[in-house]
Write a structure and sequence with these properties.
The chain has a single domain, classed as Nucleotidyltransferase, domain 5 (2-Layer Sandwich). Helix content is 34%, strand content 23%. Strands 5-4-1-2-3-10 form a six-stranded mixed beta sheet, sandwiched between helices. It contains six helices and eleven strands. Helix 1 packs antiparallel against helix 2, helix 2 crosses helix 4 and helix 4 crosses helix 5. The longest helix is centred in the middle third of the chain and has 20 residues. The chain is of the alpha/beta class and 244 residues long.
């Protein structure tokens, strides 16, 4: 298992999301195979969340395949304000600390996308840091790019700034209606966002409700209060029970 980190910047809402995707070698190999299957050349082409999707079926198919892979990984996030962009590397270090609190992730390599300004970072024992990584060659960072975009869309949806709709039959076969894309994205990666610690209350039978605390969530000191509230409300607890 390795950890891949990339950001998604949203100036209009004054936040940056850092997504840390914990992925196995098998999952990064699946991402490489997905690139080839969708008409791209691995290590020459790459998935970018900014790539044009309209009238680009290959890009749409690749995004959907990455979405499936991400849903089987684990995801931790960090959120800061746009003016803190120069301190993303330090925020990444805090995300790693949050991941290690679960006690099952040790001796990992952390890959950071190129472009992050160098900051002092203290990682837990056994962790190594690879900075300035080219996402074309470190394919796991492409998963992190895609994931950061998904998480940002979920947050924007919670803030009322992203209202795109998709056919409901993507989640509920046979339903002719529509769903918020932000909700559909959440549904597809919710298990990856969920940590091992229950967040729900005990029912009458002594069982926890199927709601878990996030796998990892940290905020910068300068994070916008409204943004932090939206993130905590939407992602602070993750429902892993049935949604059908």
């Amino acid at each position: 298992m390795s950890i891949y980190i990339d950001e998604s910047i949203h100036a209009r809402a004054n936040f940056i999301v850092l997504a840390a995707v914990v992925a196995s070698d098998e999952q990064t190999q699946q991402a490489e195979k997905a690139l080839s299957a969708c008409g791209f050349v691995p290590r020459q082409d790459e998935f970018k969340s900014s790539m044009r999707m309209a009238e680009n079926p290959n890009a749409q198919q690749l995004r959907d395949r990455f979405q499936e892979i991400i849903g089987r990984c684990k995801i931790a996030i960090g959120v800061c304000s746009v003016h803190e962009r120069d301190h993303l590397m330090s925020l990444a270090g805090r995300i790693i600390e949050a991941i290690t609190r679960h006690g099952t992730f040790a001796e990992k390599t952390v890959y950071l996308d190129q472009g992050m300004k160098s900051n002092p970072v203290r990682l837990p024992d056994g962790y190594t840091l690879e900075t300035g990584c080219n996402s074309k060659s470190v394919i796991g960072i492409q998963l992190a790019d895609c994931c950061a975009h998904f998480v940002s869309s979920i947050i924007l949806g919670e803030m009322g700034l992203f209202n795109k709709k998709v056919p409901a039959n993507r989640i509920y076969p046979g339903d002719p209606g529509e769903l918020d894309l932000a909700w559909e994205l959440w549904a597809s990666i919710r298990h990856a966002l969920a940590g091992p610690e229950p967040a729900g209350v005990l029912d009458d039978y002594g069982d926890y409700e199927p709601s878990m605390k996030s796998f990892g969530m940290v905020f910068s000191d300068g994070c916008d209060v409204a943004v932090a509230q939206a993130v905590k409300k939407r992602l602070g607890e993750v429902w892993i029970g049935c949604i059908h």
